[in-house]
Amino acid sequence: VGDGRNVVSSVVSSQVDLHRRFGGVVPEIASRQHMKMMLPVVQEAFDEAGTSWDGVDAVAVTKGPGLAGALLVGVNTAKALALARGLPLLGVDHMEGHIYGNWLVPRADEAAAIRATVAGTPGENLDLASEPRFPLLCLIVSGGHTELVLARDHGDYALVGQTRDDAAGEAFDKVARLLGLSYPGGPSIQRAAEGGNPAAFALPRGMGQGGYEFSFSGLKTAVARIVEKQGEVDLADMAASFEQAVADVLVSKTVTAARKLGVRQIALAGGVAANLRLRRLLCERSPVPVRIPPLRFCTDNAAMIGSAAYYRLRRDERSDMSLDVYPSLRLV
Ligand code: KG4
Ligand code: ZN
Fold it and tell me: pLDDT for 187-218, tens place per residue?
């Protein structure tokens, strides 16, 4: 990443196919795959960027939260590279990385694709090109996290709300399994929901009175009960109703918080930010411009970690060789 915003190469070695037959991530397989792919991926990133170590100012790496085994491979590789090359090392919080996915400049075709996903919503309330503005309200929705974070400035965060139980992505993955759809559940449910009626099933909106807290386990149970009771349900209708319930809760709370906190923009982050219904609903209801990263920067990637590290490096922050992994790290 150049200057915090320009992606010169982005290489992702996806393990989704390896984990699919187990219906979720298997930690041992994940760390072994990290070992196998780490150096080839670093080399590929150099090739794609058309540069060498001479063009590098610092090495950034995810220090947590995440699976210890996978994190260890990353952190130790980064330490070795930084030490060998005499470069500054920066350990980055994975969730902060997801926020910085919004700083990465999308390609023209990607910006057009994002605009197309919200076309027809009132206002088409998007900001994709300029640098994000503080105070910024970030809705981070991934497989492991559902958090509303207020970013007052670079590195200055406050937790507004979070999930009490399942993460939004986890709910997608679990409900997909219930409906006999493949892992990862988000894309499968979105595909299945095409043409479905989002009002076909009355599903609960968890923590309706719960301020900015979220809950998705009741929603998953409600889907399970209906499937159990009716034996067979219309898949498109159920998938659409489920998506609508998740998006409705996420957007309602985000929009209320945005008004209350007087933020200048709302940023979507994490794998679930890929969801079309969520994007459209947010652009429809948001009182301020919405930022949505392109798909490849919504799901896990290294460029977002590089961007977060750039702004820390600019504030003269560094990690040293005692950098460890923090599987349960919390941003705020
Ligand atoms: O951020 P991420 O790539 O990985 C971490 O969990 O850190 O997020 C993965 C999650 C999975 O639960 C996946 O089902 C969900 O993002 N996801 C989606 C969509 N694409 C991926 N959820 C809803 N709609 C999608 N289109
Ligand atoms: Zn993630």
Answer: 999 999 999 999 999 999 988 888 999 999 99
| Interior angle at CA 94, CA 91 and CA 153, nearest 5 | 85
The one-letter amino acid code at 141 reads V
For tokens 């105070």, the residue is: 135
Q: Is 184 in the pocket of ligand 1 (CB under 6 A)?
A: yes
- Which pTM does this prediction carry? 0.94
Shortest-distance Cα residue to atom 2 of ligand 1: 271
Question: How many whole angstroms separate alpha carbon 40 and alpha carbon 38?
Answer: 6
Distance CA 131, CA 174 (A): 36
pLDDT in tens, 116-163: 999 988 767 999 989 999 999 999 999 999 999 999 999 999 999 999
**Bridging pattern class, strands 265-269 and 136-141:** parallel
**How far is residue 82 CA from its own chain's centroid?**
27
Please check whether residue 320 is in contact with residue 160, taking contact to mean a CB–CB distance below 8 angstroms: no
Distance CA 295, CA 222 (A): 30
**Ligand positioned closest to the Cα atom of 186:** 1
Q: Which atom of ligand 1 is nearest to the CA of 185?
A: 14
Cis peptide before 184 (omega within 30 of 0): yes
Mutate to test the pocket of ligand 1, among 67, 296, 299, 329 (most ligand atoms within 8 A of CB): 299
